[in-house]
Amino acid sequence: MTWEHLERGSSPVDWCEGNYLVSPDIAEFVNTISNILFLLGPPFLIYLFKDYGRFIQPAIHLIWVLLIVVGLSSAYFHATLSLLGQLLDELTILWVFMATLSLFCPRRHFPRIFKRSRKRFCLSMTIFSIVATGLSFCHPAINAFALMFLAIPATYLLYKELKIVQDERVYRLGVRNTTILIMAIVCWINDRMFCDTWSRMNFPYLHGFWHILIFISAYPACVLFAYFFVNDERPESRPTLKYWPRNDFELGIPYVSINYDKKFDDAI
Predict the structure, then answer these.
(1) What domains does the chain contain, in order, with CATH numbers?
(2) pLDDT value at residue 186
(3) Would you indicate the residue range of the signal peptide (predicted)?
(4) Which one of 25, 85, 101, 222 counts the least CB within 10 Å of its CB?
């Protein structure tokens, strides 16, 4: 990586929003500030998942931290349009996806070659991520399109789990999550492929809406797979999908509640 890749505008990717129209220091102002949810949401999710992290899987907090890194990387990219910023943005998305898949994919979906071993599955996903990271430097202009294909296996796995889930609240969250994901992808495609049309309508900000919608879709997806994981491997913990601030308000912030044994808690 040479110094020229740190320079503003060195990325081959430039989104629809006009550059330096609001601030002389920020290339794409709306696309930069629209990452705010990635910075504000995860710290609260760390709090809501404190029992999950303590009793089930401490690595859940790694996912929330990686989402913060995604937001910071995306903001840096859109503020500078540098190649380094682009690669950081794309690679953090790749790694948060692979980390979630490795840690929380139910074992019954593992290919037979892994013999239901999560250690083998995690190792293979790590190797795949390293190879994909190296390939991302070859043709940076196509990286974003390649990342969009990650939605296919994620949606397929979610579909398979929703077919057998018995909790109606979990099912409804899965349906809402998929709907929002589709809306986010529509915004991404329109901004990337039909910029001239939206510019003539004086609304070149669909990529900013992508940031907002993809976060609203991404974190519930992580919540759902965290639920599937504990329901599959630790059913005695009796996981329950709940919402903050009110459990009867399903448009609130979802999280997984663990009904742990109080005696066990006191012993710790």
Answers:
(1) 2-256 (1.20.1070)
(2) 97
(3) none
(4) 25
Binding-site positions? 14-15, 17, 19, 28, 78, 207, 211
pLDDT in tens, 35-69: 999 999 999 999 999 999 999 999 999 999 999 99
Alpha carbons 166 and 170: distance in angstroms, whole number: 8
Residues at the annotated binding site for Ca(2+)?
A: 14-15, 17, 19, 28
Asked, as a colleague might, if the bond just before 239 is cis with ω within 30 of 0, I would say no
Going by C-alpha positions, the residue among 139, 65, 141 that lies closest to residue 96 is 65
Residue 12 CB: number of other CB atoms within 10 A?
13
Query: Which residues make beta-bridge pairs with 241?
Result: 256
The answer, yes or no, to whether residue 28 has pLDDT greater than 60, is: yes
DSSP structure string for 74-106: HHHHHHH--HHHHHHHHHHHHHHHHHHHHHHS-
Residues 6 or more apart whose CB falls under 8 angstroms from that of 223 comprise: 173, 241, 254, 255, 256
Whole-model pTM over 0.85: yes
